[in-house]
Design a protein that fits this description.
mainly beta, Thrombin, subunit H, 2 domains, four-stranded antiparallel beta sheet, 14 strands, WD40/YVTN_repeat-like_dom_sf, WD40_repeat_dom_sf
Protein backbone atom coordinates (compact mmCIF):
# COMPACT_ATOMS: atom_id res chain seq x y z
CA UNK A 1 0.00 0.00 0.00
CA UNK A 2 1.46 3.35 -0.99
CA UNK A 3 0.75 6.08 1.47
CA UNK A 4 1.99 9.64 1.24
CA UNK A 5 4.30 11.56 -0.97
CA UNK A 6 5.54 12.06 -4.38
CA UNK A 7 8.28 14.63 -4.29
CA UNK A 8 9.84 15.82 -7.51
CA UNK A 9 13.61 16.06 -7.25
CA UNK A 10 14.03 17.44 -10.75
CA UNK A 11 12.07 17.48 -13.97
CA UNK A 12 13.11 13.85 -14.41
CA UNK A 13 12.68 12.03 -11.08
CA UNK A 14 9.88 11.76 -8.50
CA UNK A 15 9.91 9.73 -5.27
CA UNK A 16 7.13 7.87 -3.50
CA UNK A 17 7.01 5.67 -0.42
CA UNK A 18 4.91 2.91 1.09
CA UNK A 19 3.91 2.35 4.70
CA UNK A 20 5.91 -0.90 4.60
CA UNK A 21 9.15 1.05 3.97
CA UNK A 22 9.62 0.88 0.20
CA UNK A 23 10.94 4.04 -1.50
CA UNK A 24 10.63 4.24 -5.29
CA UNK A 25 12.27 6.60 -7.77
CA UNK A 26 10.09 7.22 -10.81
CA UNK A 27 11.09 8.58 -14.20
CA UNK A 28 8.63 11.46 -14.63
CA UNK A 29 8.42 11.34 -18.44
CA UNK A 30 7.57 7.61 -18.62
CA UNK A 31 6.15 6.98 -15.12
CA UNK A 32 8.39 3.91 -14.89
CA UNK A 33 10.21 2.92 -11.72
CA UNK A 34 13.94 3.60 -12.13
CA UNK A 35 14.98 2.09 -8.79
CA UNK A 36 13.61 1.17 -5.40
CA UNK A 37 14.85 0.18 -1.96
CA UNK A 38 13.36 -0.78 1.36
CA UNK A 39 14.01 0.94 4.69
CA UNK A 40 13.84 -0.78 8.03
CA UNK A 41 11.29 1.35 9.84
CA UNK A 42 7.87 1.38 11.46
CA UNK A 43 5.17 2.85 9.17
CA UNK A 44 6.97 5.04 6.62
CA UNK A 45 4.84 8.15 6.09
CA UNK A 46 6.66 10.53 3.76
CA UNK A 47 9.80 11.19 1.75
CA UNK A 48 11.42 14.52 0.89
CA UNK A 49 14.54 15.35 -1.08
CA UNK A 50 17.17 17.87 -0.05
CA UNK A 51 20.87 18.34 -0.67
CA UNK A 52 21.45 15.11 -2.56
CA UNK A 53 19.75 12.94 0.06
CA UNK A 54 16.25 11.77 0.94
CA UNK A 55 14.58 12.48 4.28
CA UNK A 56 12.10 9.77 5.24
CA UNK A 57 9.65 10.19 8.13
CA UNK A 58 8.36 7.07 9.87
CA UNK A 59 6.27 6.68 12.99
CA UNK A 60 9.33 6.20 15.22
CA UNK A 61 12.17 8.09 13.50
CA UNK A 62 13.20 10.41 10.69
CA UNK A 63 15.98 9.08 8.48
CA UNK A 64 18.34 10.84 6.12
CA UNK A 65 19.31 8.32 3.46
CA UNK A 66 21.36 8.45 0.29
CA UNK A 67 19.44 7.89 -2.94
CA UNK A 68 20.66 4.28 -3.03
CA UNK A 69 18.94 3.61 0.31
CA UNK A 70 21.95 3.56 2.64
CA UNK A 71 21.39 5.30 5.94
CA UNK A 72 23.20 8.59 6.51
CA UNK A 73 21.64 9.49 9.88
CA UNK A 74 18.61 8.60 11.97
CA UNK A 75 16.74 11.19 14.05
CA UNK A 76 15.13 9.86 17.22
CA UNK A 77 13.65 11.45 20.27
CA UNK A 78 15.13 10.47 23.64
CA UNK A 79 13.88 7.17 25.10
CA UNK A 80 11.76 8.89 27.76
CA UNK A 81 9.81 10.72 25.04
CA UNK A 82 7.96 7.90 23.33
CA UNK A 83 5.78 9.76 20.87
CA UNK A 84 4.64 9.05 17.33
CA UNK A 85 6.04 11.22 14.54
CA UNK A 86 3.31 12.38 12.16
CA UNK A 87 5.08 14.87 9.92
CA UNK A 88 8.49 16.26 9.05
CA UNK A 89 9.19 19.50 7.23
CA UNK A 90 12.55 20.49 5.75
CA UNK A 91 13.55 24.15 5.72
CA UNK A 92 16.78 24.01 3.67
CA UNK A 93 17.33 27.78 3.66
CA UNK A 94 17.82 27.69 7.45
CA UNK A 95 19.15 24.09 7.48
CA UNK A 96 16.36 23.03 9.84
CA UNK A 97 14.21 19.94 10.14
CA UNK A 98 10.89 20.47 11.91
CA UNK A 99 8.90 17.53 13.23
CA UNK A 100 5.59 17.09 15.00
CA UNK A 101 3.85 14.15 16.63
CA UNK A 102 0.23 13.02 16.83
CA UNK A 103 0.50 12.52 20.57
CA UNK A 104 2.55 15.55 21.62
CA UNK A 105 1.89 19.28 21.65
CA UNK A 106 5.51 20.07 20.83
CA UNK A 107 7.24 21.06 17.60
CA UNK A 108 10.78 19.68 17.56
CA UNK A 109 13.34 21.64 15.54
CA UNK A 110 16.64 19.98 14.56
CA UNK A 111 19.80 21.06 12.72
CA UNK A 112 19.84 19.09 9.46
CA UNK A 113 23.61 18.56 9.55
CA UNK A 114 23.70 17.32 13.15
CA UNK A 115 20.34 15.97 14.21
CA UNK A 116 21.48 14.15 17.35
CA UNK A 117 18.99 16.08 19.48
CA UNK A 118 16.46 18.85 18.90
CA UNK A 119 18.02 22.26 19.42
CA UNK A 120 14.66 23.92 19.96
CA UNK A 121 11.21 22.82 21.11
CA UNK A 122 8.01 24.85 20.86
CA UNK A 123 4.89 24.01 22.87
CA UNK A 124 1.60 24.42 21.00
CA UNK A 125 -1.15 25.78 23.26
CA UNK A 126 -4.47 23.96 23.69
CA UNK A 127 -3.20 21.10 21.58
CA UNK A 128 -3.06 17.33 22.04
CA UNK A 129 -0.97 16.68 18.92
CA UNK A 130 -0.24 17.76 15.39
CA UNK A 131 -0.88 15.89 12.13
CA UNK A 132 0.52 18.06 9.37
CA UNK A 133 2.70 21.10 8.64
CA UNK A 134 3.16 23.08 5.46
CA UNK A 135 5.40 26.00 4.62
CA UNK A 136 3.73 28.99 2.99
CA UNK A 137 6.27 31.64 2.05
CA UNK A 138 8.18 32.24 5.30
CA UNK A 139 5.60 30.78 7.67
CA UNK A 140 4.80 27.25 8.79
CA UNK A 141 1.15 26.26 9.22
CA UNK A 142 0.03 23.15 11.06
CA UNK A 143 -3.09 21.03 11.54
CA UNK A 144 -3.72 20.42 15.22
CA UNK A 145 -5.64 17.89 17.24
CA UNK A 146 -7.26 19.99 19.95
CA UNK A 147 -7.97 18.59 23.37
CA UNK A 148 -11.58 18.55 24.31
CA UNK A 149 -11.87 20.12 27.74
CA UNK A 150 -14.88 19.36 29.87
CA UNK A 151 -16.21 22.26 31.88
CA UNK A 152 -16.99 21.23 35.42
Amino acid sequence: MFKTCAVIFSQKVAYSCSAEGTVMAWEVSTLKVKKHFRLSCDLLQSVYTCGGALWCCSRTSIMEVWRNGSLKQRVNLPEHQRVTFSCALLLPESEELWSVCVDSAEVYIWHMKNATKPFHRVMLQDCAGCYCMIQVKNQVTHTLAFQHRHSE
